[in-house]
Amino acid sequence: MRVTCRHSVAEVVEMNRFLDNVVSRLDTSVATGTRTLAKQLSRRGFLGRLGALLVGMGTLPLLPVARAAESQIPELGDPQSCDYWRYCAFGGNLCSCCGGSMTSCPPGTELSPVTWVGTCQNPVDGKHYLISYNDCCGKTMCGRCGCHRTEGDKPIYYPSKSNNILWCFGTQSHAYHCTVALVLSEANGPG
Amino acid sequence: MISVFSRSGSTRRLTVGTLYRACSVSFLLLTATAGYAADFEPELGGVETLSEPGPHWLITMGFLAGAYVWDADSGEMKGKINISDYTSAVGIDEARGMIYVPGSYYSRGTYGERSDVLVFNDLKTLSAVAEVEVPKKLAAVFHRAVINPVGDRFYGLYNMTPAMSVSIVDVEKRRFVEEISTAGCAFVYPLSGRRFMQLCGDGTVQVISLGADGKESARMRSKQFFDPDTDPVFDFAVANGDNWILVSYQGLVYEVSVGDQISVTKPWSILTDEDIEEGWRVGGSEPFAFNAATGIFFALTHQGEDDTHEDEGTHLWALDFATQRRGYTIELEEPVGVIGVSQDAQPLLYIVGGYPNTIEVHDASTGRHIRTIDEAGSYAGHVQTFSGGGR
After folding, report:
1. Of B141, B227, B235, which is closest to A166 when you measure between CB atoms?
2. Quick one: which H or E segment has residue A14?
3. Which of A32, A149, A177, B365 gives 20 to 30 Å between its CA and that of B50?
């Protein structure tokens, strides 16, 4: 199975540039004058807003919103097993083994609003779904149920599809604890 | 500082504090042992220092595992370097006798105020002697190319927030110079002059030049030469002199050279048609190495399907880079993901893997096994070699 992106390379690059540009401007702005504001608004706040803006524009595969754990699709399998269908491009420790679940972080950790994505096939309905892998951050590594799968994984210079990056961006601390796998939408098949 | 010779003849340095503690312990020992061994001379403790690094010294480093210094000629561990939980690689500056450690730290361990610094460690003592504060953006990607020299005075540190940028540090004046935005392009691969190369998500490479003040003076971009969706190049490149060798997931080899323009050679494949038919692939986390003095290129290989580019290698292939033909093959006892090779004319090959790690040391020219270094850290993310260039 290969992870697909609904955008051309040029579009993705353009998105990345746009993201870089906006974040860079925010960074510069903070660094040069709005120190008080920066103390009040964490990087998560900045990136959350940025992510919402970009998702609203329908341009980015970075989906920063955690949502209710109630699954709306048929699920069959063990979420504590690396073989579980949602984990096809997973890298890290399964939060379902660490006091959380496949969609929620363990107590005392913080869900990263910025993620990498994969496209995985649900064996029950045969459909492909866009999966967001969110790191849970702020505690030392859980160390249980390590899982590393590379279906559609890309190099680090292609970050939206790379699981070799510590994705605790926009959180109070970028200490890595574990990762959840959220279904974002149905995908139009493998790519 | 006082130097004394121990019975083994090695030099040890004693500070005043150490001497005071040693004398205190000696007094207690003498008191306690009075009447038992009046002529016994108590041993004095001390702290070792490193000798001059040789070309067969190396550093292995892994996620949350620290950085170990080894001498592959003796198989002995020489010491350990303090790194942060987020440190991905170090800069080895033998000319200045320093090891630079980029790191991120929180005031309460895993939380609190974050500070990102480049720590200067003395290469003789492996102790921190200075630090330079840098923007709190150091990338935690566990990759060798997050820090590298840019010219003879500057170092580039790769940032990711996830916006991509590079922080420049002047190691001569020990000060931060500036942050350079590198949208869509990652890492710091050094080139001659004050230049460095980056890999970009649109299938190109980017070259950035610094002025004498360490600030960006120019940049250029190659044409697209690979497709990041269908056959991206590994993000781990190996140097051939001033050129960089890139290998794609499907085993195509590109060589990038940089003059006034960026040139990329027509690719050739590590895998023959027969290899492809048998399902051979390249893969690992640092699956390639190259020794320019002998022209030998090394690749970890395995048999697998698509998307197994990070599977550890079951075999190591040694190829003559000029003729593109395979010389010898090593069938590995256990799959490994990391290899390295010394850069001298009598090169040693390092095959690193297992849990805990072992470092298998081979003669790189013949493939002959020389020694095994056991208990080499808990997990190796990568290998860095010394040049033995001296200070």
Report:
1. B141
2. helix A9-32
3. B365
Tell me the CATH class for B58-74+270-386: mainly beta
8 Å CB contact between B202 and B173: no
Alpha-carbon span B279 to A109, nearest angstrom = 42
H or E, element range at A24 = helix A9-32
In this predicted structure, the answer to whether residue A32 has a pLDDT above a threshold of 80 is no
Omega cis (within 30) before B356:
yes
Structure tokens at A74: 């048929």
Domain of A168 in residue numbering reads as 9-186
Q: At what angle do helices A9-32 and A43-56 cross, to 10 degrees?
A: 150
Size of interface A-B (CB pairs under 8 A): 127
**Cβ B183–A20 below 8 Å, yes or no?**
yes
CATH topology for B82-229 is: Methylamine Dehydrogenase; Chain H (2.130.10)
Residue A168 lies in a domain: yes
> What confidence tens digit (pLDDT) does each residue in B363-390 have?
999 999 999 999 887 766 789 999 976 4
Q: What single-letter amino acid sits at B355? A: Y
Predicted confidence at residue A52, as pLDDT, reads 30
Inter-residue contact B178 to B166 (CB < 8 Å) = no
Predicted pLDDT of residue B380: 67
Tokens of A139: 């505690």
Task: Count CB atoms within 10 A of the CB of residue B2.
Answer: 10
Q: Answer whether residue A191 is part of any domain.
A: no
DSSP annotation of B145 reads G
Q: What is the CATH number of the domain that holds A140?
A: 2.60.30.10
Q: Which residues 6+ apart lie within 8 Å of B68 measured at CB? A: B59, B60, B61, B77, B79, B80, B81, B376, B377
Annotated active-site residue A116? The verdict is yes
* Residue A4, in any domain of the structure: no
Query: Which candidate from B110, B184, B203 shows the least CB-CB separation from A16?
Result: B184
Q: Are B379 and B65 in contact (CB under 8 A)?
A: yes
Query: Could you report the per-residue pLDDT of B192-243, keeping only the tens digit for each?
Result: 999 999 999 999 999 999 999 999 999 999 999 999 999 999 999 999 999 9
Pick the residue of B105, B107, B165, B202 with the most A CBs within 10 A to test the interface with A by mutation. Answer: B202
Of B84, B92, B3, which is closest to residue B49 (Cα–Cα)?
A: B3
Phi-psi region of A107 (alpha: psi -120 to 50; beta: other; left: phi over 0): beta
Residues A185, A58 contacting (CB under 8 angstroms):
no
| Nearest C-alpha neighbor of B88 from the set B120, B65, B111 | B65
- Range list for CATH 2.130.10.10 in chain B: 58-74+270-386, 82-229
- The CA distance from B239 to B231, in Å, is 21
Whole-angstrom distance, CA of residue B128 vs CA of residue B114? 19
Record the tokens describing residue A154, joined without a space: 């890309």
Q: Which residues of A touch B114 (CB under 8 A)?
A: 173-174
**B67 CB-near residues (< 8 Å, 6+ apart):** B59, B60, B61, B80, B81, B83, B87, B90, B101
**Strand B154-160, strand B147-150: pairing:** antiparallel
Percent of chain A with pLDDT over 90: 59
Q: Would the pLDDT of B24 be above 90?
A: no
Question: Is A3 domain-assigned?
Answer: no
| Residue B241 to residue B173: CA distance in whole angstroms | 28
If one counts the domains in chain A, the total is: 1
